[in-house]
Specification:
The chain is mainly α. Helices cover 43% and strands 9% of the residues. It is built from twelve helices and six strands. The strands form three sheets. A two-stranded antiparallel sheet has the order 1-2. A two-stranded antiparallel ribbon has the order 3-4. Helix 2 packs across helix 3 and helix 8 packs across helix 9.
């Protein structure tokens, strides 16, 4: 009987110690869960993006040391009358605020900063993107092009080579998408967001061992400019690789347009004189791929570049009978001429 009593007492002691440990470790979280009183603290400025979820807001607050638990924040926001009315914008909070006061601050101050919808189509060059940013009042074209030389913290940038003759090193890597920016966003912020989107969209895509990321993006950039329809991209990619395998020059008009217009793409047609332009982007004069991408690319372009259609076509041209932007593909030069 005494032995059983000792075991019972030992269990009580262990349980008491565990409870004490839980209370010690969990005290800050318990306090955060029940506290309704703020104390004086240090000012912390946070920016809540438009459309952020309650969990997303909680993550931002936790990263800035304003709360300890995202889960507790979500619970208290759900229970608060104004928890569903928290707004986006820039807020000056302090790290001594209780969660109810944080929610009140976020729900009581509406953002006054205007926003701009910024759409970048597939196949736009950085020069065209810069011009569009200026037309929308985001930043000047010169500011945008200058900010391309800033430092950006993405692993894939380390894989971008630096070649003499390349117009802009980040050409090809500004992901085409519709973005929403604050009207006073800087050129650096705009570019950073587009690079972030490129990283997000291409995560998990495996680059073939026979190619580099830069080569894949370069091929994709040709496809974006040459193909009006995504469905034709793999077939045109097949033509590109067939010609490269045979040592033929690519002779892609879009590369000449890029060289002649310096990425502005403000010319309607390529002349015979244009074909002679001395540029590392001119695939009529130079063998192999152009020195770098000639436009910015989508996942569809990249996917086509690494998964080309297998065929024997070496030529293609616009189908003038359909006149819908599609192409006719042929295996020989005689067939190519005959179908024009």
């Amino acid at each position: 009987m005494a032995k059983n009593k000792r075991k019972y007492n030992l269990k009580i002691i262990i349980a008491a110690l565990c409870l004490a440990l839980v209370l010690i470790v969990g005290a800050p979280y318990i306090k955060e869960l029940v506290s309704t009183t703020s104390v004086k603290g240090n000012i912390v400025t946070v920016e809540i993006p438009m459309g952020a979820s309650t969990e997303g807001i909680g993550e931002i607050l936790k990263e800035n040391g304003l709360i300890k638990s995202v889960l507790i924040f979500k619970v208290r926001a759900k229970l608060a009358d104004n928890g569903s009315k928290m707004n986006y914008g820039t807020f000056n909070l302090n790290d001594g605020m209780c969660i109810p006061d944080i929610i009140n601050a976020l729900a009581g101050t509406y953002a006054t900063r205007d926003t701009v919808m910024f759409t970048v189509p597939e196949g736009f060059s950085v020069q065209q993107i810069a011009a569009r940013a200026e037309s929308l009042g985001l930043c000047s074209k010169a500011e945008f092009l200058k900010a391309l030389d800033d430092k950006y913290d993405y692993d894939f940038i380390e894989k971008i080579p630096t070649y003499d003759g390349v117009h802009y090193r980040l050409q090809g890597f500004l992901y085409p998408e519709t973005y929403e920016f604050f009207a006073d966003a800087t050129a650096h912020e705009v570019i950073d967001k587009m690079l972030s989107q490129f990283e997000k969209e291409t995560k998990g895509i495996k680059i073939p061992d026979s190619m580099t990321l830069y080569e894949v993006v370069t091929v994709a950039s040709l496809l974006e400019r040459e193909a009006l329809f995504d469905a034709e991209m793999p077939r045109i990619a097949g033509v590109i690789y067939n010609r490269l395998d045979k040592g033929m020059r690519l002779q892609i008009d879009a590369s000449v347009q890029y060289a002649v217009s310096r990425g502005e793409y403000n010319i309607n047609r390529v002349t015979y004189d244009d074909l002679e332009i001395n540029s590392p982007y001119n695939t009529y004069k130079n063998a192999g791929l152009p020195i770098g991408p000639i436009s910015n690319v989508s996942v569809e372009g990249i996917t086509a570049a690494i998964n080309p259609e297998k065929h024997e076509y070496l030529y293609y041209h616009t189908d003038t009978e359909k006149n819908d932007g599609s192409h006719i593909f042929t295996k020989t030069y005689d067939e190519h001429l005959a179908t024009q």
